[in-house]
Amino acid sequence: MYYDPLRDKTPYGATASGQPTTFRFTLPSAEKADRVTVILRRGTEEFRADLRFARFDGDGLVYEGAASVPTAGLWYYRFESVSGGRTTYYGRGKGGCAVAGEWLPEWQLTVTKRAYKTPDWAKSGVVYQIFADRFARAGEVRFCKKGRLHADWYELPDIAGEGQDYRADDFFGGNAEGIISRLSYLAGLGVTTLYLSPVFLSSSNHRYDTADYMRGDELFGGDEGIKKLCAEARKHGMRVVLDGVFNHTGADSVYFNKFGTFPGKGAYQGKDSPYYGWYTFYDYPDNYHCWWGSTVVPTVDKSAEGFRKLVCGKGGVIDKWTKAGADGWRLDVVDELPTDFTDLLCAKIRSAKKDALVIGEVWEDASDKISYGTWRPYFMGDELDGVMNYPFRRAIFDLITKGDREGFRDAVTLIAEHYPKESMDVCFTLLGSHDTVRALTALSGVDAPYTKEERRGYRLSDEYYAFAKLRLKAAAILQYTLPGVPCVYYGDEAGVQGFEDPLNRGTYPWGREDDDLLGHYRALGELRRRNANALRGTLRFAEDDELTVFERVSEDGKDVLRTLYNPCFHAVCREVNACDAFTGEGVDTLWIPPLSACVVAFSAR
Fold first, then answer.
1. Is the Cβ–Cβ distance between 534 and 554 less than 8 Å?
2. Quick check: bond before 11 cis, omega within 30?
3. How confident is the model at residue 208, as a pLDDT?
4. Does the domain made of 391-510 have the CATH classification 3.20.20.80?
5. Where is the Glycosyl hydrolase family 13 catalytic domain (predicted)?
6. 319-338 pLDDT, tens per residue?
7. Nearest CA-CA partner of 424 in 104, 3, 103, 110
């Protein structure tokens, strides 16, 4: 039998409530069935749709039929065949393909409330994540914070403050003017979207402990710096996505004001504070609910009317920064936000700008995400456009470092199968972020030194660096050709190394880049530009005994981009009769070096 949800189900990916979904199921010609049925269920609700014999396909019999699911949600399905009074059930096997047996896993069918569109501008090109304090600085550096400003841009980040507790209070002064001064560089990488770490007022270098949502951080350039950056980015063909941290504020903030930094009365200072109801105190004032036990980031009660008004009200946070030029938001720890608040927030973002992009930080499969015992309906049509695609990162790394071809195919197929295609097209496909070990370091295979001080100063040997770079080049090819939009963490393209936070947040090495690696990323950006039609199409895997091979196929079927990864320690040869996707030159015989990837293009135009 044969069934591949990426090939044999239409539409590709999720479907919409009431929209016909066509299933094609193939049985061996020797197993002609009296009846083939697809069985769909949600909880105790179940219905069946018969598939009719449609055609012969080689030595197989293809059965085809359509079913319309009436209500939105997560549905699950399996197949049943009846032949001569014998009933056989088929469920989801490895790679999403069908296997026969009892009590097998089912396929998931994500059914949205309606068909919906995500912003077209976000579906092509490249996303570039900038940790605002560490990318580039230019012009006046307005330092007015506790802690210290590094005099040397190339110093390593501090790992401990006073008392050996990490305080995140060392700064390098990266600012809006610095980013503006490097927009031509980013354009050369093919960047079309800038995703900025938080840029609102904060006492820390990461700014995930917001002090005032309505003020741009002065060190970054203040309100005017943010406005100017958005405007200048547009001139270079780029949009700007801001990081919205709405689960918690800083303890050192206008709202909590634990240290008396601000003139008004914060929740910590008195129960008569207008912000007191925003927080949950267990034993006032020092015992309060905070994110993951960190007292520097007290958690906000998202049902508090005042907080909702500040963020989503007229003239509030979303309105102000949309007017300043923001084109979208990445919602930090979105799975910590209650569904009704996420609904409100997403609706507000889209009312402020019709084609705004909303990306959520979700580390798992976002279609069936359970958080605090509740399913999160991220892809039903009212909430997120897409998410940070960490499952693809894990799949790529497992393929590259462990040779797990089967796991790669299974993980990628699962996400592509579960997500609405409109959402899949705008997910950020990443190899690294401010929350992960640097890609080059992670791919090197070295064991992390025991102490943080040792990890801080650690740099790969020339031999390990060359090995890690070989792996990173292959990983980047996969990243750039899989569904979604590649999201490059600043400096990965230049050879930046580093273990965990804050060692993964070093400065961009201007003038000290790895030019060879940088050239590879520039070529990948150009590859995406030239092959945008195929890269906005569907995904399918091809069978190969040694290689991992997948294709992106344009909607009209005329353009095909094929990626081939060789996990072996020897070169592999394949006959392709195509064009090298990097050079455009014709290729009949393709030699793929060990631990490397190649991309070829086919066109019927």
1. yes
2. yes
3. 98
4. yes
5. 129-528
6. 999 999 999 999 999 999 99
7. 110
The two structure tokens encoding residue 493: 């393209």
Q: In the predicted model, what is the mean pLDDT of residues 27-51?
A: 93
The active-site residue out of 332, 422, 425, 492 is 332
Calpha distance 85→53 (Å, rounded): 18
Three-state DSSP at 72 gives coil
Q: Which of 361, 385, 425, 493 is catalytic?
A: 361
Cβ contact 33:81 at 8 Å: yes
- Which of 2.60.40.1180, 3.40.50.620, 1.20.59.10, 3.40.50.10750 would CATH assign to domain 534-603? 2.60.40.1180
Known catalytic residue at 361:
yes
**Per-residue pLDDT band at 95 (split at 50, 70, 90):** confident
Query: Which residues on adjacent β-strands are paired with residue 331?
Result: 244, 360
CA angle 563, 565, 567 (to 5 degrees): 170
Q: What is the pLDDT of residues 448-487, one digit of tens each?
A: 999 999 999 999 999 999 999 999 999 999 999 999 999 9
Pairing between strand 239-244 and 191-196?
Answer: parallel
pLDDT in tens, 336-391: 999 999 999 999 999 999 999 999 999 999 999 999 999 999 999 999 999 999 99
Q: Residue 128, by phi and psi: left (phi above 0), alpha (psi -120 to 50) or beta?
A: beta
Q: Determine whether 332 is an active site residue.
A: yes
Question: Any idea where the domains of the chain sit in the sequence?
Answer: 9-112, 248-301, 391-510, 534-603
Residue 161 has what pLDDT?
52
